């Protein structure tokens, strides 16, 4: 136990929501201050930068719709990753799962003749299944052969990027694309409706919100959710109880990959309407969603707050690029700083600050010989 | 061109392309031997690459550039060391954060260097005498970067240190059973810090190789996923510097092949090859062993004194 300025750092029985929220907000605040330092080093006044971001994203409808539009993939993938992380599966492959979902849906939209009303639902279904299948490979390799999922999910990201590149430059290259690397546009029935004057494909947004709520209910209220929580919190207990951990982990990975696949279908049918350069299709949503999930601290409903926050960060990146000619990588800088702060403050969640007693502080011998 | 020349050509270039893989993977081997995983490889390499380019660009001294690329990688890796060793944060997430931050920071700072030519690059050299050996001469000792020769020497040295010296025993023990090392009065924290920083230096040099020697230029994200392959090579090489050297040449050869076969097969499909091969190799490695041969026992777990 450590004491400073009349306060004592005490271990808690269970982390409290308020304390966790406070720590998260402090982390975000510190990250914003550090980002301000980066702005000034870059020769831009931080106050002006934050003003520009604020007016560019939150004061008018077109700016705000851009925030919501960026929120959609982050929400879908973020919820899926919360599930994956809770069962101790480090799915770093959402980027690839998104791309594969978009690709499979594009394949259906371009080459499979379907009645108009069925086109979008089937594309969504196929996209979900493709993303899930892409996640199934590393899940199976981890469960059956104990192969580290971080490496395999990442490798599959690069495979997916090259797969999309191959298709748009080769067999799927559009007749109308001339020198460019993209497919023909999807037919009208495969376009996700958007709010007028924006790229906000609200259908996917609704799906994403429903997905977050349903996932929260599954995790909190069902037996399967209980299994998932045990598996994440204490794998040895799960084993002792004779749980089928294989089935639970596979289920979680299918949901996680499928959600990323859905996000890909959303980007494809709501914004681009054709398969194109993978780096334009996903702007690193799969990686940013890791931070979205981490900030939500294992709660699918928490993603309903953290995903819009990062949607705002992405939209801010666009504003910085257009208005202040700053490279978009400023978003990565912020994300990196914030992720470091989040994991650095993680241990504090298990502690609370209490007023130290009047008497001489008690030193327990357990922590003091740490010697650092 | 006859088959022998073709093969010698491929393998020669494989050594060249395997060089950054070799430096990065050798460094990570020591990091993981000490019980720490650093997934920040891409980030550290990019920081090294940008530093190397900037130094070479402003001083015209490529050797200094490579050295400072390593130093920059080492300094950057301190962040990971502090997070995972001192604060005992999740090693995977910290490594990812290092990659995200490194990618972002170099993209931001490197903007001014994009498209700039580099006049003083690290020249390739041939080793007099050795280059006349049949097959091996043209393959390995002709027109290669000095970093290729150095990398191979260091690889052998690191192997000897790891398995034939007291220091190696100490390092391996920290990764296997930190408690026992602590009980002997050695400083686990210090050894782990040293390993992580060493890994950062090696990754930084690997990055510098890209921007100062291999294709002397700076572009955003110039390492293009090579860092992840280096991480896989460490697993493939069973945390043994000699196998890691083999793995680096093997994956270097894969890259070269993917350039050479472009006339026949689409380059995008060929670009998938190294990544698919990583998975394939991991599967074969997993199938080929029973138990967890080679994995440091305490890999990925923070060490806390006084905990039972």
UniProtKB/TrEMBL annotation, chain A:
It is found in: Cell membrane. CDD domains: TM_PBP1_transp_TpRbsC_like. Its main location: membrane. It comes from the Bacteria. InterPro entries: ABC_transp_permease. The chain crosses the membrane at residues 21-44, 64-85, 97-114, 120-141, 150-168, 200-219, 248-266, 278-296, 301-320, 326-345. It is a multi-pass membrane protein. Signal peptide: none annotated. Pfam families: BPD_transp_2. Keywords: Cell membrane, Membrane, Transmembrane, Transmembrane helix. This is ABC transporter permease. It comes from Deinococcus roseus.
UniProtKB/TrEMBL annotation, chain B:
The keyword Cytoplasm does not apply. It comes from the Bacteria. InterPro entries: ABC_transp_permease. It is found in: Cell membrane. This is ABC transporter permease. PANTHER family: ABC TRANSPORTER PERMEASE PROTEIN, SUGAR ABC TRANSPORTER INTEGRAL MEMBRANE PROTEIN-RELATED. It is a multi-pass membrane protein. Pfam families: BPD_transp_2. Keywords: Cell membrane, Membrane, Transmembrane, Transmembrane helix. The chain crosses the membrane at residues 6-24, 36-57, 63-85, 92-113, 146-163, 193-214, 226-257, 269-287. The keyword Phosphoprotein does not apply. Signal peptide: none annotated. Its main location: membrane.
